[in-house]
Design goal:
It contains four helices and five strands. It folds into two domains: about 80 residues, no CATH class; about 60 residues, OB fold (Dihydrolipoamide Acetyltransferase, E2P) (Beta Barrel). Strand 2 and strand 3 form a beta hairpin. Helix 1 packs antiparallel against helix 2 and helix 2 packs antiparallel against helix 4. With about 160 residues, the protein is α+β, with helices and mostly antiparallel strands. The mean pLDDT is about 80. It has a five-stranded mixed beta barrel.
Length: about 160
């Protein structure tokens, strides 16, 4: 006769893994949790020769671990890494921007457009509107910039 405690333990561990997945989503724990839940219910409601042996629980645990190990590279392939969705000024270092409000030395009056965002800019030299600049430093809500090309001539 199968010990129902094994089935209960597998179901509880599966539920804990699913709850962990809800707290820290990413689908990494779904496959092993599903395997443990199904195995636990099989132990409880559908006795068989495999489950009666000592190898049954070991085979189920090995299957759950193998599934998790196969799942990790699969999810890395399906969901490749990308730049963070939120932007920090330090994360902009090295990016190019366009001056949209004149940069005045040692003030934060200047504004630059980086990607689709507008940031306060500072520099140790005057930089007129329309100049392409490179972000060399980020601090708080402002960036330090240097011109990439010569400033456009006023007409």
């Amino acid at each position: 006769m199968i010990d129902p405690a094994i089935g209960i333990v597998l179901v509880v561990v599966g539920i804990i893994l699913l709850a962990s997945e809800l707290v820290h989503p990413g689908a990494l724990l779904l496959i092993p949790a599903s395997i443990l839940l199904v195995a636990g219910f099989l132990y409880l409601f559908l006795p068989s020769d495999l489950l009666d042996s000592y190898y049954g629980p070991i085979a189920i645990i090995v299957a759950a671990i193998l599934a998790a190990l196969i799942e990790i590279p699969y999810y890395r392939w399906v969901a490749p890494t990308h730049k963070p969705m939120s932007t920090t000024s330090a994360g902009l270092v090295g990016d190019e921007a366009i001056v949209i409000a004149p940069v005045v030395p040692n003030t934060l009056r200047g504004k630059v457009r980086v990607r689709s965002e507008i940031w306060s800019a500072r520099s140790n030299q005057e930089i007129p509107v329309g100049t392409r600049v490179k972000i060399v430093h980020g601090e708080g809500v402002s960036v330090s910039v240097e011109p990439i090309d010569s400033p456009p001539k006023a007409s």
